[in-house]
Amino acid sequence: MRIALALGLALLATGCGSNSGADEGKIYLQRFFGECGAAYGTATDVAAAKGECGIITSMINKFNAENAGAPVSSNVVAWPGYPQLSAQFAAGDPPDIVSMHGGVISDYAARGLLEPVEPYLEAAGLKPDQFTDASRMAATVDNRLYGLPWDTHGGLYHINTKLFAQAGLMRDGKPMLPQSAEELLAHARQFKARTGKPYLLQSLVADTAAQTRTLYTYLMAQDAVIFPDPLHIRLQTPEARRVVNYFKALTQEGLGTLDQDTPAAIAAFLSGEGGIYPTGTWMIDQFHQDSMTPGRPLYGNYAVYPYPRLWGKHAEFVSGHVWVVPKRERTPAQRAMIARFFAFMTAHNLDWARTGHLPAVRNVIESAAFKAMPHRAEIAPLATIGHPLPGYVQRQSAIERLVGEEVGAAITGQKTVDQALADGERRVNELLAQLPVVSPSSPPRRSASSRP
Prior knowledge:
The protein has 452 residues and is an alpha+beta fold. It contains 21 helices and 15 strands. It has helices spanning 2-13, 37-40, 51-66, 82-90, 105-109, 118-123, 133-138, 161-166, 181-195, 208-221, 238-252, 262-270, 284-291, 332-347, 349-352, 362-365, 368-371, 376-379, 382-385, 396-411, 417-433; strands at residues 27-31, 72-76, 97-101, 140-141, 144-145, 148-149, 151-160, 170-171, 174-175, 276-280, 302-306, 316-319, 321-324, 358-359, 386-387.
């Protein structure tokens, strides 16, 4: 509360447009999302910007234009930027604000390297319940919010409606999505019989994230406990066998592609070679633009929805981007500037939604302006049905790779399902066993051995 009060007083003392304390209020921001200085280096018209890089660059430029002394210096790192951030922590000189994936927060927060952001939100006039459940959970560790929620992203069914019509799977102008595993299998067989093409375009080669996303989603739908505690994963379960056996059988029947990597699957979808490509929110803009281009196979024939419910309840594994605040010494003016930046970014959350990611702000995702964007009304439920992994799960990116490798091996027939799940559980547990269980309240370490 004292910190929040100090931040609030600092905000009042350094009112917008004032030169007072300008130097003391300068902050250093580090982000991914690409580099596009040639096109947007001085752009401040956020509404005219396109793509992740263009929009975020224009936002930061606009913030600097509206605040005296251009207080935010930004550095663009190659995706995902965590090796550089870890080195900065080890050197004792991390940035003030960093873009981060929700699944990575636990690695840093558990070691006391990040500040909880509730004081900054309070100083900015923001409340945690202003953000959607999915985006807020992605930034939460040990019941504390460790980042400004920025968006939600997850898997979607990108659909070729021309092929769905040919397969007799359109109703009232909308694609018919299955409501059970049995119905999806029936639809897939009907689709293959009538079009001669696969129902699912699957990136099974070198795309471990896609396989993990599918498994997590349908385990969550069945209320399966994936991580019973911070040091164990549970994969040798009836629920996991049900999911992997199902997609293995579907693939072996030729209803889903077997030998495509991500670029090949994208190219196949754009060329009209399959009915559905399950991939993320980040592909909406590219596919929509293609569907608006005369002469293209997708022209006028694109729709997108969350993954369908196949078992249990309608749930989906999601993550999100957040803005975190590394622990370091700061002046009151710098803390005030971070709060002001958070308020600005939250006010522009609708602009960020043009990337395809779902807004983190509840009233934005419920707004008519958001739902008027192409396909946004259809994917909005992702913010309600979406669930990230528990905040106590560390090394989520590494785990994603291990799980995806084993699930992919099972679906493609390189391993039996039981062997793949056993190997996946063993490999993940061996990884987690090497981690110290530490509290987010622990002081930040300054040696290379503490690098996340």
